[in-house]
Design goal:
Chain A has 241 residues and is α/β, with parallel strands linked by helices. Chain A has eleven helices and ten strands. Chain A starts with a strand and ends with a helix. The radius of gyration of chain B is 21 Å and the shape is globular. Classes of the chains: A alpha/beta (241), B mainly alpha (345).
């Protein structure tokens, strides 16, 4: 579905990614793990066109999307879902969701997708006329994921869906991510919560200093000592959960 | 050490009320005070206010959408007035409009003038944004970080546009004789038709803008881009296109306001300067960056200015708007609506 080859990118003149290679198969959940400042989010931003990639290639669904404008990438079906704080606080929940379906041309499709999102997250239906600013942290994350689903994407990229949330809510959201995959979407999830992410994912990548250092089956990665020690901060990984 | 001193919201509101009360008592003691003059001040104040509001909405739209305080906005107002005047004169000098509308040729010509001022200024705004502002901001790293430089460029653009208007329409004052009919009588006040047109058209345009922003898909996109360009990118909005649309709408509003004001005074190359400052005062009073705030601020400034120049002294008319701005900045620095909805936690 998504193939990244030798991706080099960064902010301004600061290079963050030093040739990252990744592959995400259709209808799988892939976890991208790493500590702070290793380039996880940079990969997502380069894929969704928010920052320019300096060299390398990004291939999505058989087409080269490298340095396409962001709205074209969303139209192609690749959507990035940022952390829960990135909503429009002065708009109601339903307006936020409608914005998610901005690239859709027919009203009918928009209503169908709203139905679908409310099916995943009934909580949003209860609060659809509230301002987004009044939602709790977990509800905001649901809103962000729901907004991402509104444009009928083929693949969504989640940027730390568990950040700053209570474990119970994280579990709930991860269950929903699994449901989304079962309904035919491909998911790339960037996480610091290593244990949870690997439980959810089929395959994992560990990034450090802008390159992929370890990759493999998620069950294998979970018990890989080099992963624990070298890249995820030793014994801290389990404490993360 | 100085402690930073800040009023709480409640104290702010009480102080504003006290200021309003003192002001009202002061003008009610004026010898000119009677019910007719009060009615007149109200009508004229609201009429002038909606014009300030329309220009201030443009300034606020550009501020939220482009992160630029557009100091050349008054020039779009001025060129809009000239556009309306030129279109009107062209139509009224010809034979065709008399043949089709022998009775109401002035009204028809004026409406077409308003329409052209709106559309042409919108397109002109898009052109200016694309060929002037965008390359400049690109060099500075994009709209959000271009900063002070682009504000100075706004002054430069203002001078350039004034000189362009100077070349096209020459520096003399042009009278705008819009033949809109005899003055009418509203509640005992004789009101020239030009003021009635300002009042009605101003409210219609403000209402249309409200409808556009809140009920259409494009308006939703405009509001999204005004709040955050990054999130707008992620939901698939064509952000560069919407920035042009925002600038175009703001300039179209200034253009139609210019054509509305033109017949009440005269059309001069320098007319943009004072309206820019007054609209700026309106935007600050209402809360900078807030669109309802800009309209409310426009009414406040319009009413205050008209009341002061009628009841206190007409010779300092242009100073009152800034007096009000200073008072509001001292008492309530955020303006009336200057509170953004913040995220919890």
């Amino acid at each position: 579905m998504l193939k990244i080859n030798g991706l080099i990118s960064g902010y301004g003149s600061v290079q963050i990614l030093n040739g990252a290679n990744m592959k995400v198969d259709a209808q799988s959940i892939v976890a991208l793990l790493g500590g702070n400042g290793t380039g996880k989010s940079t990969i997502l931003k380069a894929c969704s066109g928010l920052i320019r990639s300096w060299s390398g290639s990004i291939n999505f669904d058989g087409e080269d999307i490298h340095n396409n404008p962001p709205h074209k990438i969303v139209e192609r079906g690749l959507v990035q879902v940022t952390q829960g704080k990135d909503v429009f606080p002065a708009m109601s929940v339903i307006e936020n969701l409608r914005l998610g379906g901005f690239v859709l041309n027919s009203k009918q499709k928009l209503e169908d997708n709203l139905e679908k999102v409310f099916n995943y997250f009934p909580r949003l239906n209860e609060r659809k006329n509230q301002l987004a600013a009044t939602l709790s942290g977990g509800e905001l994350q649901m809103l962000c994921i729901g907004r991402g689903l509104m444009s009928n994407p083929k693949m969504i990229m989640l940027d730390e869906p568990s950040a700053a949330l209570a474990p119970q809510i994280v579990l709930d959201i991860f269950k929903n991510i699994n449901r989304i995959r079962k309904d035919g979407l491909t998911v790339l999830v960037v996480e610091q919560n290593v244990r949870m992410a690997l439980l959810l994912a089929d395959y994992g990548y560990v990034i450090k200093d802008g390159v992929i250092k370890v990759e493999g089956d998620s069950k294998k990665l979970m018990y890989d000592d080099t992963v624990k020690d070298s890249y995820l901060g030793g014994g801290g990984t389990t404490a993360n959960v | 050490m100085f402690k930073t001193f800040k009023f709480t919201r409640k104290v702010e509101n009480i102080l504003m009320l006290i200021f309003t009360a003192i002001f009202l008592i002061y003008i009610s003691l004026s010898p000119d005070m009677n019910i007719d003059s009060l009615k007149g001040v109200l009508i004229i104040g609201v009429t002038v206010g909606i014009i300030y509001g329309l220009v201030a909405v443009g300034i606020s739209l550009i501020y939220t959408g482009l992160d630029v305080v557009n100091f050349s906005h008054g020039e779009f107002f001025m060129i809009g007035a000239f556009t309306g005047l030129t279109v009107y004169n062209f139509l009224v000098d010809g034979e065709l409009i008399y043949a089709i509308f022998p009775e109401a040729y002035g009204v028809v010509g004026y409406v077409i003038g308003l329409f052209f001022a709106f559309v042409l200024m919108g397109l002109f705004g898009v052109l200016i944004e694309r060929v002037f502002l965008r390359p400049l901001t690109k060099k500075g790293g994009g709209y959000t970080v271009a900063g002070m430089g682009i504000i100075i460029c706004g002054f430069g653009l203002s001078v350039i546009l004034q000189n362009v208007a100077y070349i096209i329409w020459n520096p003399t004052a042009h009278p705008f004789h819009a033949d809109l009919g005899l003055p009418i009588n509203i509640a005992g006040i004789t009101l020239p038709m030009t003021y009635l047109w300002m009042l009605v058209t101003g409210f219609v345009v403000a209402g249309a803008l409200y409808f556009f922003l809140n009920k259409t898909k494009m308006g939703l996109g405009v509001r999204a881009v005004a709040f955050s360009k990054d999130i707008s990118n992620l939901v698939g909005i064509n952000v560069p296109l919407y920035i042009s649309i925002i600038f175009g709408i703001a300039c179209a509003l200034a253009g139609i306001a210019g054509t509305l004001v033109g017949p009440t005074y005269q059309v001069v190359v320098y007319m943009g300067y004072i309206i820019l400052l007054k609209a700026f005062a309106s935007a600050v009073v209402g809360g900078f960056g807030s669109l309802p705030g800009a309209i409310v601020g426009g009414f406040t400034v319009g009413l205050f200015e008209t009341a002061c120049s009628f009841f206190i002294s007409g010779s300092h008319k242009d100073a009152y708007a800034f007096l009000l701005m200073v008072v509001v900045l001292l008492i309530k620095p955020t303006g009336f609506f200057g509170v953004q909805v913040k995220m919890k936690a």
